Amino acid sequence: MKTNTEKFGTTPHQPSLWTRADALKVRADDPTTTQPLVSADFPVLNNDLFIWDTMPLRDLDGNVTSVDGWSVIFTLTADRHPNDPQYLDEDGNYDILRDWNDRHGRAKMYYWFSRTGKNWEFGGRVMAEGISPTAREWAGTPILLNDRGEVDLYYTAVTPGATIVKVRGRVVTTEHGVSMVGFEKVKPLFEADGNMYQTEAQNAFWGFRDPWPFRDPKDGKLYMLFEGNVAGERGSHKVGEAEIGDVPPGYEDVGNSRFQTACVGIAVARDADGDDWEMLPPLLTAVGVNDQTERPHFVFQDGKYYLFTISHTFTYADGVTGPDGVYGFVADSLFGPYVPLNGSGLVLGNPSSQPFQTYSHYVMPNGLVTSFIDSVPTDETGTQIRVGGTEAPTVGMKIKGLQTFVVAEYDYGYIPPMLDVTLK
Ligand code: FRU
């Protein structure tokens, strides 16, 4: 097992650590960091489709952007199969939960548009069938590049492998709606290297996905965040003093937590267009704490770097736990050191009475947090549930120094633009 210095060198930075001690501070159901209960009578965006990860069109600085007054979101999307014999139970009823749980294998990028930042109208698939090189089109980021409407869609091409790719197209508007044209040539950018970021050969459960490109407000260069796991054979990671942190007596036992090795990766572009990338050591690691830090993204505020990432209860390591939701870290410069927000990292979690009500939170620079509805209990015991596959109510949050506070709740899927670009 290599030390961090052997693995990552001394420049440009050492990854910051989310420690077991930090995670011990997680308090589920703290009202300032808990998403309000989602009611089981939620409306569904589209009865033929499941939608989940939601990716607002934005610029490279992170601003959610409309075009000619039209808001645009991209979503991971899969058909619902209410009549497919494969998804009928022994009584002939549609087993929606099984269909929903299988969705990742057939995820495709779709887009939607709206005049009001909600009540999204169906756009369609972004890429025609056969364009994307692999079976699954997983999460990423659509970037509006200019006032000609050019869009770079960064996403993850998964199965076989997991490759961060991009495809360029154009957004076109009329009085009546929005269409996406082009998106015909997918360019592979990079994959896990096995030195800094774990590969499939090192761990069949590796994660490498969810690109989030951005321009650093301080140095102006083009970078990209992504989800990864720390390189090394599964089981070979060491949960030492640094990963454990300052724990009380009796909390030194790390159990099998060496199997949880999430990190937030970063790459820097070698060119202005973002076609040529160099992976750098992770910004943040969670070895011994959690196995997934998904969809990492930034809010740049008050000269600080607020780093957000989503994670699950089931991906926590032995001896630590927390709700499904979004976690956050803050630093004064891009390469850290990062410290957990609210002491623990927890920023917005599901209430323990509805642990799966929402997921895939995305914090926007205006403090609004969008997510999707996963499943909501319909009875007291929580044995009956209603599957979502649709937009959750948006939450309003205040970010203040090292803390965050839930302050408002808005309509389902409310994603208002922060600026509008008039297309030439
Ligand atoms: C988050 C996520 C992403 C991934 C996608 C797969 O909900 O797990 O990390 O890209 O969903 O469906």
Form type: globular
Sequence stretches where pLDDT stays below 50 over 5 or more residues: none
Largest sheet: 5 strands, mixed
Helicity range: under 10%
- Number of separate strands: 25
Q: What class do helices, strands and sheet pairing give?
A: mainly beta
* Radius of gyration from the alpha-carbon trace, in angstroms: 21 Å
Describe this protein's structure.
The protein has 424 residues and is mainly beta. It has a single domain (4-419), classed as 5 Propeller (Tachylectin-2, Chain A). Helices cover 5% and strands 44% of the residues. It contains four helices and 25 strands. It has helices at residues 4-8, 20-24, 96-101, 241-244; strands spanning 16-17, 49-56, 65-67, 71-79, 108-114, 121-125, 136-144, 150-158, 162-173, 178-190, 209-215, 222-229, 261-269, 277-287, 294-301, 304-311, 325-331, 339-340, 346-349, 358-363, 368-377, 385-391, 393-400, 403-412, 419-421. The strands form six sheets. A five-stranded mixed sheet has the order 1-14-13-12-11, with no helix packed on it. Strands 15, 16, 17, 18 and 19 form a five-stranded antiparallel sheet that branches. β9 and β10 form a beta hairpin. It is globular and about 65 Å long. The protein binds beta-D-fructofuranose. Beta-D-fructofuranose is lined by residues 52-53, 76, 104, 107, 138-139, 156, 209-210, 227, 294-295, 359-360.
In short:
By secondary structure, the protein is mainly β. The protein has 4 helices and 25 strands.
